[in-house]
Amino acid sequence: MRNILIIDDDEQMRNLLCRAMEYAGFEVEAAADGRKGLRLFEENSYDLVITDLIMPEQEGMETITFLRKNHPDVKIIAISGGGRIGPETYLPAALELGANAAFAKPFPIDELINTVKELLNVT
After folding, report:
1. Which CATH code, of 3.20.20.60, 3.40.50.2300, 2.60.40.420, 3.40.50.1000, is assigned to 3-119?
2. Is the overall model pTM greater than 0.90, yes or no?
3. What crossing angle do the helices spanning 87-97 and 60-70 adopt, rounded to 10°?
């Protein structure tokens, strides 16, 4: 079974993503910020990380940069509502840093699940 780490400071979004990924058949763990997420990542093995981009403690851009440098094979999906600037600025930057896919909040959960399955080669 494939393992997914979800990093998002919004508790409702984090819970929604966890339930959706579990329903799709994945093992899931979650963290409320990038620092906690990277600590989990270093302690466990994950095939894919879904990370929000705007969070306290450590933002998603830093998380993506660290993961890409130290774990180049992990698949990464960036998600963002964009905050004051808007997702049209953050999401392309996340892709440039090495995210495999990016979604602007709100997004259809089935599209996210399909992208996760494609990235992990799961049918």
Report:
1. 3.40.50.2300
2. yes
3. 10
